[in-house]
Each structure stands twice: as C-alpha cells, then as structure tokens.
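agent> Task received from the user: take the single chain below, predict its 3D structure, and emit structure tokens. No templates, no multimer pairing.
agent> Plan: (1) validate residues, (2) run structure prediction, (3) serialize to tokens, (4) report one or two observations.
agent> Step 1 OK, no nonstandard residues flagged.
tool_call: predict_structure(input=
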Amino acid sequence: MLLQAPALAGSLTGTATYRERIALPRDAVFEAVLIDAALADAPARELGRVRLQPAGQPPFRFSIPYRDSDVTPGGRYTVRATVRQGDRLLFTTDTFTPVLTGGPSQPLDLVMVPVGSRRPPAPRSPLGHLPASWRGDLPAASGTTRWQVDLAPSGSFQLRQTFLDRPAPNQFDDIGRWLLEPGGQRLVLQGGREAPLFFQPVGGGAQLRKLNLQGQPIQSRHHDLLQRLPAAEPIEPRLHLLGMFSYQADAARIRLCATGASLPVAMEGDYRRLEQAYLKALPAGGAGRPLLVNLEGLIANRPSAEPGRAPERSLVVERFVGVHPGKGCPQAPPTAPTRAPLARPELRGTLWRLQALQDGNTPTLRKPPGKAAELQLAANSERVSGSGGCNRLMGGFQLDGEQVRFSRLASTQMACEPAAMAFERRFVDALAQVRRFSIDKQNLLLQNAQGRKLLLFRAMP
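)
tool_result: status=success, residues=461
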C-alpha cells in the first residue's frame, strides 16, 4: 500500500508601502496575492492571498501562505499588492516582482503606486525637501530638553531627546513612521511610544513647532520651535529593537519592525550570540528564513561589504535579547480598536491607568486632579512609558518575580496647571520608590520595599 506524503506549506513574507505621504480612509482594505504568471495568454492562477481589513496605514506587513505542491521548478511567480476602498482601487503594484525562484526566500519590499497616472503635479510639501533634520532646545518642567527630528522620504523618522540639566543617562532615542495629515497642518510621529507625537510645519519646512499631546498648540510663551539644519545630520539612534533577522552566504540583514527598513547587520558587538541563537532556532530546511528577534542596538554608518562603495546605514548589536520562531512583527493596532472584556491582565504589555496615589504617610488614596496618569511596561524590552497627567514619561524597569524597580525616569517639557504639575511630581517620586507589585482581577498595586501602598492602577481595554 502506498502512503500519500503530506502537503508541505510555505509562506512569503514582506512589506508593502507607497511613497505618497497621505493617510488612507478608515475602510481601506489591503491585499497581497501570490500568483502563477507562467502563461502569458491565460488568466493568472492564484496560489495564496492575505487581507488586512481595515488596512490601517503603511507599511503593510504580510505573510502569504501557499502549498509547496503548487510550485514547480522553473515556474514564474509574482506577488501583487493592492489597496481598495469598496470597489475603488486606490493603490497597486505596477512592476513584476519574481518570487520562488529556487533560492532562499528574502522578505519582499513592494512599492505601490496610486491608480491613475495622469494627475496634476503634487504641490510643494509643507516639509520641504527630504531627507532633513530639525533641532531645538525647548523648556521642560525640570530644565531644558534638546530635540532632534530626522525625516526620510521613505516615511521613517528618528527622534532624540536630550535632557540637558540631568546627568547621564539623559538621552532617549526613538524610530518609527511619520505621516503628514491632509492639508499638511500636522506632522504625526508614531514610534515606540504608546502615543504619537505632533509637530506643525512652519515656513515651508524651515521650522517644526512642537504641539501638545492632543496635537494642539502649546499655550505658553516659551520657545516651541525646532530649526531646520542646513543639511540633514541624522542621529545614530541607540534603542531596543524588534526585527526580522536573516543570515545566509555570510551576510546578515534585519528588517526593522518599527520602520520596515532593511539594514545590513554589522558583525561586531554582540552579533555572534544573535547569529548562534538564530541558527539554533531555524527549522529543518529553513536556511535563510527570517526570524523575529529583539535586541538592544545602534543604527550607524559602517563600511559596505562591497568594495568601493560608500559606508551604509547598518545595525550594530549591542546586546542580544532573544529570538522568537514562528512570530512576526506586531501588527499596528486598528484605527478604532474594539473594546472586549479583559481576562486577568499581565503586568507587561497592559496599559495601566492610575486610580489612586498614596499621599505621604496618610492612609487616604487620592485621585489625580486632572488628566489620567498612565503606565505601560513594554512586553519585549525593559522600557516603561506613560503619562503623569501632564507630561509623557519614559525610562527603564527591572523585573524579578514579584519585585519591580523603575529607573532613569524622564519626562517631556509641557507646562500644565500647578495642581497637575504638583501631582505629577508626586507620581514620579512614588514610582521611584516602587519595589513590589501585585495584580488582583483588573487592578495593579505598587508598593515600596516595606509593603506600603504607593499607587493603584486599573487595566484598560
């Protein structure tokens, strides 16, 4: 009796984007389709499809499953990506991208174009020519903060905040995607923070005005402008990163989850630990397959692997953290997330909203006087972010069983009502004293080393 071999399954991963800096409507749908285009005079045969509904905003990360039995040596295969709103086609790929050519599969980078090529010339961007850098010293609640924003025409940004009146470590970097809202009145930076940052282009991109957390002008007489530098001077950001790492033929690359950029990985620092863990985690026959990794790294110029070429932007692994087989980059949350009942929340990855703060030695817990104060411990790094009810907070944490400690806490520069500012200072002081935590149903209680209650939070959907 003959036994039929099981059908083997593969997948194609990649990202798709478009160069136009416009926001998609809420009901837009993204699709990526793997097709067999071997017969020029016959309809293309579909081998796999993936749909994102709602699409959200670019870049769109996808993974198309297919059956190995549908793929034949010498075949002609490609991936087509589209964005639609109802029956209206908004964006599509217009070039043939060969895939499944017999070698190890690399992540795809697809660029879509708007449908309808005969369009009026685009007006000058409110940001001016890119790439560009803006820098400025803005007043902060506890001193002065130096901001630098780097924008690339691909839609990625780099951000650095340096707290000039504090001892090191006083520098915090971020990367992500930028978007210019319709009308060009607001620049939105969405990176590793739990909330976006807003700026307003001024003078055709000669300046960027810092806006508040709601995207509105800051009601203050203090300086709020970043000045455009004569030429782009991109920072070399140092931060925790997630990315799809691959290694083959003595070459290593990573596609960053935050920006979609594909970078070579320098073979220095903690690189060897990353490579060894990656090779150990690869499934049989999966040579060159991208795997999700997280690490602490530096993005900087390094000599090109090809002789005679200029140095190129590369990733330097300063501390390898982990590899996660079977997982991909986290998808961006939908525009209007549904609110579902929460199971028992985890400490990490949950947005915690402050309900009460212990005041001195009195047993009474007092509620915040103004906007809600919030806290979120990252799921895949030792970074904490949140809000004190006025300013954005950021820093690090260490976790050991039921013990937790916050460190290197810093904040942004907004000025609020005196009562809110005073409460925020008490909030930050209390966080610095935290040593233990406990979770009961939807509540998080933070205590000091002696077990005294300091802060009470509730999990948000």
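agent> Step 4: summary for the user.
The CA atoms of residues 403 and 436 lie 4 Å apart.
agent> Done.
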